[in-house]
Amino acid sequence: MNKTLVMIIGPPAVGKTTVGAELSKITGFPLFHAHLSIEAILPVFDFGTAPFNRLVTSIREGVFSEVVNSDLPGLIYTYVWAFSHPGDLAYVQNLASIFESAGGRVVFAELKADLGVRLDRNEGEDRLAAKQSKRDVKNSRKRLLEAEEEYQLNSDGDFPLPEHILIDNTSLDPETVAHRIADHFSLLRTAESGQD
What we know:
It is a single chain. The protein is an alpha/beta fold. It has helices spanning 16-27, 34-41, 50-68, 86-100, 115-121, 125-130, 137-150, 174-184, 189-192; strands at residues 4-9, 31-32, 74-79, 105-112, 164-168. The protein has a single domain (4-192), classed as P-loop containing nucleotide triphosphate hydrolases (Rossmann fold, 3-Layer(aba) Sandwich). α1 crosses α8. The two termini are 13 Å apart.
């Protein structure tokens, strides 16, 4: 069975995890949001240090490899892609290659939303429940604004890989966005057919 990796990408607090949870309900694909690996390592190593980066990458690659070798139909993964950072494209391609080398499909759902909306979502109950490191709201807001200033966090019409959709979810609810993604990439089959 060919598996599908759905990468939901976009800036911090755009709604990737919430949309991913809705998409998981539609497709039956499990959601592995980026903070699951981040939160696992933060108690041991500081964010951005070499050991932190190695361990987080190792966890992500390990999960992807196990999914490829499992009976799961696919995986939903969330990621903040800094398009202006030269290493990010290579990082994404490396993760995608785990699925592609096994004959799988990789699709990209890019979300964008107004900064004011994202600042509100940064303090949302779902986000704080899922991501312990974001519960220091003052620091989380500061980091969000710094990332906004430092990096290009949306592709701005120049997405470097195929199978891509861009959705402005400033005024859209997560369920609507998830259905748009599922429809665009024809991902409805798993849940609708009653398969696990």
